[in-house]
Predict the 3D structure of the following.
Amino acid sequence: MRRRAILGYGAAGVGAVALMLFVGWWQVDGPGGPEPIGQRPVALTAMDFRLTDHEGNAVGPETLIGRPTMAFFGFTYCPDVCPTTLSDISGWLDDLGDGADEMNVAFITVDPERDTVETMAEYVGYFHPAIRGWTGPEEQIARVADGFRATYERVPTESGDYTMNHTASVFLFAASGRFVTMIDYHEPREFAVPKIRRALEEEMEGAT
Amino acid sequence: MKKHTLTGTLAALLTLGGLSVPALAGPEDVVVVNAWSRASIGMNRPGAAYMTIRNTGDEPVTLIGLATPLAMMPKIHETKTNAEGVSSMSPAGEIAIAPGESVALEPGGLHAMLMRLQEPMTEGDTFPLTLLFDDGGEVTVEVPILGIAARGPED
Ligand SMILES: [Cu+2]
């Protein structure tokens, strides 16, 4: 009796360990695992989403193809990282001079609930005129983030509001739509601007 | 050379109308320099303020909180960016500053988060921000409000 009970526990134990291993695999590597973040964005030509820019125009990945692109995810209620990044981008564009006119620059909201077309229009107006604000329905925002392999998450704050955690890097694409590289948050201007120049030059080569 | 630099700094202090005048009230050993913030669009969004807090004394000091008539809920927050490039923000808790050390509140790191604004932050204005220390000491600094696209205290 006693022995049987022990055996029973033993079997249950083995079963439990196997189950734990399986659950662990499922969550980490298996189909239940999170999207591997840090993965390269797909080419713009392979993306599919419909958004609206801050002037009310319908936009999609095709809007960005034909000229090199700088794109960034954020939200206008962000007090720290987003205004800083938009100021950084404005500074890079000033450094590029005429090159800035050759680029698409899209600021894509991850908070479409609060960032309406009108809100985006007012907000981007404070930064470099090349910066366009893009918003759209929740599921389209999810699609664009998926193509970029960007992540975002809504987090409640102690003031009773919410904030958004989100990928803060700036994405660079060539005119062909090919992903070139990323500019990390906090990356000094002396590294950022040459990266952008490289994306611009790649376009020239592609065109000739 | 050194003298020149000092004179330049002094001139900058004067022209910026008290922007960086060391705040010496309260714990005499705490000096706050380069305080700045960005203008807000209305009152719905939280604001953020930045500065460098120096402990010039021989004893450690611990910053435990903030107070300002501008915001009902000012708090020290920290923005972090992880290896995947995802940034997030959370309350920073208490901040100990060792003797002779400084703590920088700067974009993308520690910041004074100004939640529930009581009035819009208007470029060109200033507001008082009081730093509260664990020994009951307080230091009040007048924070200038720069443009929304400002990148640092000199913008
Ligand atoms: Cu914050």
